Amino acid sequence: MAPKALVLGGNFAGLTAALSLKRELDADVDVTVISKSDRFVFNPSLIWVPFGKRTARDISVPIARMLDEHDVDFIHGQAMRIDPSARTVESSRGTQDYDYLVIATGYLNDFDVIPGLGPEGNAYSITALEGAIDAAEGWARFVNDPGPVVVGATQGAACFGAAYEFVFNVAYQLKRHGLQKRVPLHYISAEPFPGHFGIGGLTGGEKMLDLFFKMTGVRAVFDVAMEEVVPGEVHLTDGRTFPFRYAMIVPPFVGADVVKASGLGNPRGFIDVKDTYQTLAHPNVYAVGIAAAVNAPWHTANAVGVPKTGFPSETMARVAATNIASQIRGEEPTREENFADIPAVCVMDAGNNGVAILADRMLPPRKWGVMIPGPQNHLGKLAFERYYLWKVRKGYMQLP
User: Fold this and answer.
1) Which one is catalytic: 113, 249, 346, 357?
2) CATH code of 296's domain
3) Of 159, 254, 316, 357, which residue is the catalytic one?
4) Which residue segment(s) compose the domain that 197 sits in?
5) pLDDT, tens digit, 9 for 90 and up, residues 141-172
6) 346 in catalytic set
7) Distance CA 392, CA 211 (A)
8) Angle at Cα 44 formed by Cα 81 and Cα 361, nearest 5°?
9) Do residues 215 and 269 share a domain?
């Protein structure tokens, strides 16, 4: 009987790990994916959902049939508890055993960071599909009854790229609706300076972001912490208050419930790993993507997290798949990729404009890093979205 690899999670990191491992070993490994969702969601496009430019169906792909076509089993269920000693995972669909485990369970929004966030709170968040759909309903009401807008990221947040993209898309939409001069638009962030992005910033980035703010009429406030969001107002810890008719706030992320329930993570629910992406205590258990813990190499007045979505998640997953394949062959898992050494590759959309962000390393110190502005980046992101969804539909996760 072939060794069994179990992958928890069916988005960027999970699908990449599962399909990469199956492609490498074929019949020499049985691969099963357990995911609470039966659809892959292209999270970078969530920024467009509130403005009616995308629907849930536009940016998601069913995964069961695709996985079956690649001889990967799929269980549509919720992983509830991991027992590394027994090598089992309890799920809503029963208990699964494994020889090798990949934890790619992603994140939950930490709406408890300040009062007033969450589905029943006073501001929207677009870091999950359900929140983006709620934000779309709110935006439709806002256009008919406009007023001040606040977009921000709290202390501890890491997904600053989504906050930047959203505020510039709001500015673009306000201009389209003839509201740019009537609606005050503020961006509020815990980042120490514009263009930090949770990766320490790049040379020239601060000036470039300042230029974008000036061009779009966005009033930016940095290096601050939020205290609470009450109906119609964002309160900062320094006493300042910003009124709003519409607000979108990016919160910090925490790890999945299964990680917390299993006692495998740090206090935030993320799992410490080696550069092989093996967990520290269990060489046959891997954590990749947002599930893996990454420590920021800086100290700031307000907590600033490190983004782990997209390209870094795929890189970690490929490293893990290669190492599991080595273990199954009876070899040592020698492929390593420290998170800081993963190249930074990102496109920040800005409505009908954008910025390409490229660097030799995710985190400083770096040898080089560039930010390239221009409308070609908006078009590039549209093209990449189409390409990536095609890639997932076909299961071609070995492609870049």
Assistant:
1) 346
2) 3.50.50.60
3) 159
4) 112-252+343-387
5) 999 999 999 999 999 999 999 999 999 999 99
6) yes
7) 36
8) 85
9) no
